[in-house]
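INPUT
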Amino acid sequence: MSLTGFVRFLRQSLQRLESDFIQAVGLDRSLGPALAVNGPSLLPQPNNSSEPSFLDSIFWMAVPKKRRTIEVNRCRRRNPNKMIKVKTNIEPCVQCGNLKLKHTLCGFCYEKIQKETSLIRRQIQNMEGRPLNTPAVETVVLYENETPGEADQGKRIVERSRKRPSWFNL
Amino acid sequence: MRLTLRALISHGRVARRMGLGPESRINMLRNILTGLVRHERIETTRVRADEVQFYAEKLIDYAKKGDTNEKSMKMADFWLTEKDLIPKLFKVLAPRFENQPSGYTRMARLPNRENLDRAAMAVIEYKGNPFPPLFPVKQDNELNLVNQLLKGYREEQAQLSATESKS
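OUTPUT
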């Protein structure tokens, strides 16, 4: 009820604005020439009093005509293009048996490698002392009870105090 | 008749846009490349790893020309923001890849990051780094039934050939 009143108020205020604008610009012919002339020279008066029909209103926006039934809603919501797509590129990792994507590394195996790498890096950091102190030599990682071979001559040796892991053979 | 501007369509354009602009992109790649030369294996987003791969290999190509080459030294000076890596580049990485014509880096994809952004990650490394290998070499397990049977067969054959050669 208040909505229709509000809509009516808006419509009337807009029409009032329109007539004010017309008078200001001078297109208004209601205060016409002193000579009273009958006929079509006078433009028709703006109609303020009568109830405006809905077809004249400019507040005509797109709105649903009918309630969408649950059947129609179900058809739209369960359409295959809205469902989650099935992935066919999942396979088990050969080493650990966890699932992985075909073109990607196994997360579990990479975690192991990453942890070991970070421990090696911490050892390197301790050896270097201060930051920005990289030596210009190759590095080789040796585990417990391992001695440097002929290929490791002239390289910086990083010692890790544990047994060599089975997945770290070069 | 062409109805739209060529600037608004990007069909076939391969250059990637990263960061705030071309300069920002180069600065970002410079930081990643410095990290890669320092640590020899880094983990970043897939797109950044792909972009840096090209620059990493070009840097090695320049380094192979030797540190007396002025252009190489300028390139290394620009691309490596931490200056203690310039001797490492010329004395460690360049000799390591002397005999290889190309393909000094390896990029492998990782599962998406665990954060809310679920970013596609990748690990990029220089080949010949001291860390554990990303793709572990397949080692046949001797404790399989098939392998045990094959081992037994090989030993039998060896015994037969030994007795034959004796007699």
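end of record. The longest strand of chain B covers residues 121-126.
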